[in-house]
Amino acid sequence: MITPLANFQKIIPPGQRGFFLCLEGGEGVGKTTQIKALEQLFTTAGYEVVRTREPGSCPSALEIRKLLVEGATNRWDSTAETLLFYTARHENLRHVIRPALAAQKVVIADRFALSTLVYQSLRGVNLDFIKAVHHAVVGVTNPDLTLVLDAPVAVALKRSLRHDNQENRFELLGAEFHEKVRQGYLAGAQHAQYKNLAPEAAIIDAHQSPEQVTQALIQALERWAQQRLHLSA
Questions:
Q1: Per residue in 17-57, pLDDT tens?
Q2: Residue 87 and residue 56: Cα distance in Å, rounded?
Q3: Which of 7, 88, 182, 231 is deepest in the core (most CB within 10 A)?
């Protein structure tokens, strides 16, 4: 049985302040399923929830999404990709995320800056360049908590490629690339050099049933809340 949030409500009382949660991970790890589950959980707990995905979530960013996720794998070079992703992120922040947080809502994002770091650095973009663009575009509006869903590449890609859609530009890069993506996410969640993109991050085993993954996400949220209670005591 999925347990409700408990300590979390002591830290983020409904109607008093916004909270920015991001789910990250490679293709097919189950982010969409878990975001739906978390949205229901937060709504039941009395929060107003805004869901976003990157790139997308507002008309201008959706136009950029089509440029990024459709077409040939060599459609853009890595620097152009990085700038397009951050242009879409700027629009998402301006039109969706910042207004929602200012209105004391919970924002649940399907990807944010850690994805750009992992994918574009693997495609040859200098890490310092990504950090500089990130600072200029995002400023201090980083997720309060980033939860990285991790699953074996063979399992995750099989899930992802089951879906019949044209947004497969990154899926088609192959298993070797996606294993590097997986390791990049694990490093990004653990190492201090990435912390200005994902200040608070935890890894979740996504090679379980959806219900077990949801429960693991709740436990991570509760641990985050418990740490905040300890710090504020």
A1: 789 999 999 888 999 999 999 999 999 888 899 999 998 89
A2: 11
A3: 88
Q: Which of 7-16, 34-43, 72-81, 126-135 has the lowest mean pLDDT?
A: 7-16
Bridge partner residues of 147 (DSSP): 23, 202
**Mean pLDDT value across residues 124-151:** 93
Tokens encoding 208: 């379980």
Counting residues of the chain whose pLDDT is more than 90, the rounded percentage is 47
Strands 201-205 and 106-110, how do they pair?
A: unpaired
What is the pLDDT at residue 225? 84
Which tokens hold the place of 58?
Answer: 């507002």
| CA pair distance 12, 226, nearest whole angstrom | 12
The dotted CATH code for 18-232 is 3.40.50.300
How far apart are the C-alpha atoms of 19 and 12, rounded to whole Å?
7
Place of tokens 């019949």: 164
Answer positive or negative: Cα dihedral of 129, 130, 135, 138: positive
Q: Which residue has the tokens 């899926």?
A: 171
Confidence tier at 192 by pLDDT (50, 70, 90): low
Please provide the size of the chain in residues.
Answer: 233
What pLDDT is attached to residue 106? 93
Determine how β-strand 145-150 pairs with β-strand 201-205. parallel
The Cα–Cα gap between 64 and 1 comes to: 40
**Rounded Cα–Cα distance for residues 169 and 161 (Å):** 11
